[in-house]
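FYI - complex with zinc ion, inputs then prediction.
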Amino acid sequence: MVTSSLPAAVHGYKLCQQCTVRQGGEPGDFEVVSGDSCFVCRGLMDRVPSMAKEALRRVRRYDYSTFSVGVSLPEGVQEREDELRSELKLKGSETIRTQAAKAVAVLMSAATRKHVDKLKPDLTVLVDFTADEVHVSSRPAFFYGRYTKPPGVSQRRELCHHCSGSGCSKCRNTGFERRPSVESELQRKLGSYSGSEKVVFTWLGSEDRESRVYPPGRPFVAEVKNPVKRRFPRRFAARFRGGQVAVSSGRTLPSKPVGLPKFRFRTKIYGVSSSKVDGGRLDELKKRFRKISVDFDRPHDRSTTKTVYRATGRAAGRRIVIDAELDGGLPVKRFVSGELVSPSVSEVLGTQVFCRSFDILGVTQLGELRF
Ligand SMILES: [Zn+2]
Ligand SMILES: [Zn+2]
């Protein structure tokens, strides 16, 4: 309401139709002029339809069901509206920013039949009236799956050995080794399904580069940033010279998990002992490691306790093969050597044993992901 009761002719502010309506009040409170001459928006509100059209063109390639619109106004627009309202003591409710955003959203909804969701939109549309541009970003997609891998493939991408990550000709300026890793291969596949250029992984544990991971595979969650498409296959494989990283049990998660479950894993350990181990000692392994707690004196961290569910071994000369089931977070090599872990395989067998390699036969989640 114009409470000052100054007639338009006296206060002299001229507004366009839409800016007039936004101030509330009576017809005749303002001299209504064309957009270009509007004191507040200087024609900005007239540009809403063309900006909405540009927004529609930009969102077309995305998979989405909800969106939200924000606007960036040229300098001075909001200030002039504030000035007008304080000068005339107006209690206009909606600001030009809100009205412009809403007007774009209404046009987009009508054209696409998609809904506005301000809290958790699939797409965030930023209409920049200053630069005359529309920017679209999408909510990350979260993908859960399990991977298997052959030996010789590390879980994470490794920094380039020539430049240590700063970028050089050997790594084509990526800063990373060009040999395949689970991370690089999954990034490539998930990127190709989604159109995303950035994927961030959370792994449920890890293994060595030389470990083979057998089905059903190790669980992971991938945060796929700014995806164009939000659907992923349940299973897929990334093939490269020397093998493949395969994913199964894939599903899209509703949102970012706040917690990952604990897990235990079954591993086959290939070790070598410093002296020959007899059958009686190997039986001892089975007897001792039957759901017992072992202490793990974590480097740079508090010491902790982990469970060894079982361990059985067979030996040929000084070579030992151990089949064990361990809590997630208990390092296999230390469990074998006894370094920072007690009791260990070496301790029970009464001779120093080293782990040469180990494979992951299965990973069991203890509980579900929490959201
Ligand atoms: Zn206006
Ligand atoms: Zn490099």
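The first helix runs from residue 8 to 11. The pocket of zinc ion (ligand 1) is lined by residues 15-16, 18-19, 35, 38, 40-41, 45 (CB under 6 Å).
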